[in-house]
Sequence to fold (199 residues):
Amino acid sequence: MDKLDFLLALSKRLEGLPDADQRASLDYYSEILDDLIEGGMTETEAVASLGSVEAIAEEILMDMPLTKLVKAKMKKRRRMTGIEIALLIVGFPIWLPILISLFAVALSVYVSLWAAVISLYAADLSLAAGSLAGLLGAIMMFVGGHPASALLFLGAMLVLVGLAILLFFGCNATAKGVWKLGKLTLRGIKACFVRKEGK
Fold:
C-alpha cells in the first residue's frame, strides 16, 4: 500500500467526522509518512511501519469526544422507514423511561463512588485533627504535672498521625481508581460507537 492508498483508506474509515478533524488526522499522518520517506524508507515501508489502517482509525476515533462520535454516527445513518418511525413513537412510553433509568443508575453509582472517596478524605482529615488534639492534650498534661498522661496522649498522637498518613495514600489510590474506572467506562461507551463505525 502506498501513501495515497493509505490516506484514502484512512479517510474512508473516518467518514462522518467533522471535516476539520478528518483533515487534521490525514495531514498528521501524511506528514509522518513524508518524514519517514525523507529518512530513506520507500512509501510501502513507511506505510507498513505505521500499522494497520483499522488500528489507526480506531485510535483516532477513541481520542475523539463522545459527542463527536455520536454526531458522526447519526450523520451516517440511513433514512428511517415509516414502520421504524411508528415503532419508535409507539414504544416511546417504554424505551424512554428505561433509558432514563439506566442513565440515572449509572450516574448514581458514579456519584456514590466519588462520595465514598470524599468520605475517606474526611476520615483522614479527622485523624489528622485528632493527632493535633493529642499533641495539645500531651502539652496540657505535661504542663499540668501529669507526665504519664502526657506520654499516653503523645502515643495516641503518633498512632493517629501514622493512620492519617496511611489513609492518605489509600485515599489517593482510591481516587485514582475511581478516575480510571470513569475513563474506562467512557472508553467502553466510545468503543461501542467505534465498532459500529467500522462495520
In short: The longest helix spans residues 82-143.
